[in-house]
Q: What sequence folds into this?
């Protein structure tokens, strides 16, 4: 929590910060604290203002993507699990080196990769990688150096890249230095990126 | 916490400050089925949190459950009142932060 009792702004997969409260509908709750969505005559879930919501109470557009109160897309529907959004906080830790293969880069910044006898891309250690150089399993999911699943196919872009928020230095890459902790504190107290758009 | 100020879960198993089950000897996060190591202690951050995307993949936390029950003004802002003790409360009297999150 921030000092004034708010939740820190979250990141979406594009690295934009947003206030989670801006993504939820206005709903009454029952005695157990469970939300009580309303329905329109076609059976679609609505909040008290008549806006479309999903089963977890998030505002959605006509395609099921989660949007904020101004209709701006925050998460694609395919990135939800059981209608719930992923939570990426400023203090979330991620080190991209743990999911990259071992390779050199060409002058254009592309990984120099080889192919095995089956035509699969490999790094110089013979590990399977995708065209962006990320370690992958046989299904194309990105794994870390220990072979643990890190990113399923659904969250990768068309070129096999991981979501922007994980590759642009927005998240901490190691146990917090005093500087990164300070930066996190500053980030936490900033308004949503969406509030700063013109 | 137990009498030695170590975190334990409801079954008395060792946990860290984030609630992850740990091996009491190594501090590694273990699974609750067979005790297999899931994350080395060095992979955790200073809060005891597991690395992304495992910690990101928290689709189990819903903001509606952590927020109070409010009526809203015409601008869509929750109407947060104060009780006789000056604490912020929702419309059912539950204590909340000034931003509307439920607290104990």
A:
């Amino acid at each position: 929590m921030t000092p004034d009792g708010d939740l820190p702004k979250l990141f979406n997969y594009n690295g934009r910060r947003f206030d989670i409260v801006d993504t939820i509908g206005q709903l009454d709750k029952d005695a157990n604290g469970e939300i009580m969505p309303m329905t329109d005559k076609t059976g679609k879930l609505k909040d008290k203002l008549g806006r479309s919501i999903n089963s977890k109470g998030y505002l959605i557009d006509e395609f099921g993507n989660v949007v904020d109160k101004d209709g701006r897309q925050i998460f694609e529907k395919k990135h939800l699990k059981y209608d719930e959004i992923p939570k990426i906080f400023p203090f979330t830790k991620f080190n991209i080196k743990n999911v990259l293969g071992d390779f050199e880069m060409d002058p254009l910044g592309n990984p120099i990769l080889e192919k095995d006898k089956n035509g699969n891309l490999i790094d110089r250690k013979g590990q399977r990688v995708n065209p962006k150089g990320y370690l992958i399993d046989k299904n194309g999911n990105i794994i870390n150096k220990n072979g643990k699943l890190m990113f399923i196919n659904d969250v990768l872009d068309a070129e096999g890249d991981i979501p922007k928020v994980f590759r642009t230095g927005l998240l901490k890459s190691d146990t917090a230095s005093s500087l990164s902790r300070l930066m996190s504190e500053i980030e936490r107290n900033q308004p949503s990126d969406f509030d700063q758009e013109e | 916490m137990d009498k030695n100020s170590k975190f334990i879960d409801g079954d008395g198993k060792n946990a860290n400050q984030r609630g992850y089950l740990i091996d009491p000897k190594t501090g590694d996060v273990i699974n609750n089925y067979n005790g297999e190591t899931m994350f080395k202690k060095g992979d955790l951050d200073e809060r005891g949190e597991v690395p992304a995307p495992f910690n990101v993949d928290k689709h189990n936390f819903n903001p509606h459950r952590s927020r109070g029950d409010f009526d809203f003004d015409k601008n869509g802002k929750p109407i947060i009142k104060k009780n006789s003790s000056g604490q912020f409360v929702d419309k059912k009297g539950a204590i909340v932060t000034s931003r509307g999150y439920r607290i104990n």
User: Anything to note?
Assistant: Chain B has a mean pLDDT of 87. The helical segments of chain B are 63-66. The CA atoms of residues 25 and 91 of chain B lie 47 Å apart.
